[in-house]
Amino acid sequence: MSTIAAVQIPNDALPPGSYDRFDRPEWAKLRSSTPLTLEEADLARLRGINDAISLDEVEAIYLPLSRLLNLHVSATQDLQRVKESFLGQAVRPSTYIIGIAGSVAVGKSTTARILQALLSRWPNHPKVDLVTTDGFLYPNATLEARGLMRRKGFPESYDTKRLVDFVSRLKAGGRRLTVPTYSHQTYDIVSNATQIVDQPDILILEGLNVLQGGEAPGTKPVRLFVSDFFDFSLYVDAAEDELENWYLERFSRLRETAFNDPRAYFRFYAEMPREQAMTRAREIWRDINLENLRQNIAPTRSRANLVLRKCCNHTVEEVWLRKS
């Protein structure tokens, strides 16, 4: 059993004065006249398995955020037009890349899907793709050969070189780029399936460690990190005890649903007595997910352009926006 040597990072462990902080009512006002383009049926398809996000949350938090991101994208497009005017020739628009990071169970996948839906409804950037870094995990066979199965989700379990190559080619205007597909059911890369990314206006890249920079422990040195290509970055944040509760709640739900599938990698948890399974889930949280959070994920929070700070019921209570 591993020991967690890292200390918990305080909620306010950010460079002094580096962020403007908004409480929920203050942030909600920044929606301005942005229309709500999602309905309850849309939201039902976008929710995570244990993330009971409401339309009120979309209006208060995600509409102002989509407005901010739309302004950023528009400003980037304006700069491209300036470059065209200067050069006297057409310049291929560059894909705007948004990175979303955060702990296991914090709801970053739901955040990514909602932003994809909202941003694609703005007229000046209708093509918005979403890619998760799960597809860039090494296959289980490789992880097993390297003794990394219990480190799945840690930086060294990803094919960082392939991920950096993907985003760099995307920024350079690459066409029909292929992204590996990951199955949460089989807990492995799907060998015969890929996602095609073909010059979207915006790409949302979501993953545990996407905000890392510098040399990550256990990885081979590379010249660039994926975060070097981001135009904007978000960190979805919550207190450690809340994250543990959400992880255990999600595990319990999966045990009653997806884990019952005969093809599921974790089917044995559905067949295990409930108390025994939940005890194992607590060990996984403590020895793997919490260690990864403290060592690798939470330290990258201060690199984000914007932090969504969640409270006990999954709602965002504060938004921190970087000043520069």
How would you briefly describe this protein structure?
The chain has 324 residues and is an alpha/beta fold.
What does this protein look like?
This protein is of the alpha/beta class and 324 residues long. It has a single domain, classed as 3-Layer(aba) Sandwich (Rossmann fold). The chain has helices at 24-29, 40-46, 55-87, 108-119, 140-145, 160-171, 240-256, 267-271, 274-297, and strands spanning 19-23, 96-102, 128-132, 177-183, 188-197, 202-206, 232-237, 306-310, 316-322. The strands form 2 sheets. It has a 7-stranded mixed β-sheet. The protein has a two-stranded antiparallel ribbon with strand order 4-5. Helix 3 packs across helix 4 (108-119) and helix 7 (240-256) packs across helix 9 (274-297). The longest helix has 33 residues, at 55-87. The protein is globular. The N and C termini lie far apart (42 Å). Mean pLDDT is 90; it is low at 1-9.
- What is the assigned CATH homologous superfamily? P-loop containing nucleotide triphosphate hydrolases
Give me the side-by-side strand order of the main sheet: 1-9-8-7-2-6-3
CATH class: Alpha Beta
> What general outline do the C-alpha atoms trace?
globular
The CATH topology corresponds to Rossmann fold
What string gives the helices and strands in order? EHHHEHEHHEEEEHHHEE
Main beta-sheet annotation: 7 strands, mixed
Terminal CA distance: 42 Å
Individual helix count: 9
Descriptive terms for the model:
disordered N terminus; two-stranded antiparallel ribbon; alpha/beta; 38% helix; Rossmann fold; seven-stranded mixed β-sheet
Topology (elements, then pairings):
Blueprint: E1 19-23, H1 24-29, H2 40-46, H3 55-87, E2 96-102, H4 108-119, E3 128-132, H5 140-145, H6 160-171, E4 177-183, E5 188-197, E6 202-206, E7 232-237, H7 240-256, H8 267-271, H9 274-297, E8 306-310, E9 316-322
Parallel strand pairs: 2-6, 2-7, 3-6, 7-8
Antiparallel strand pairs: 1-9, 4-5, 8-9
Helix pairs in contact: 3-4, 7-9
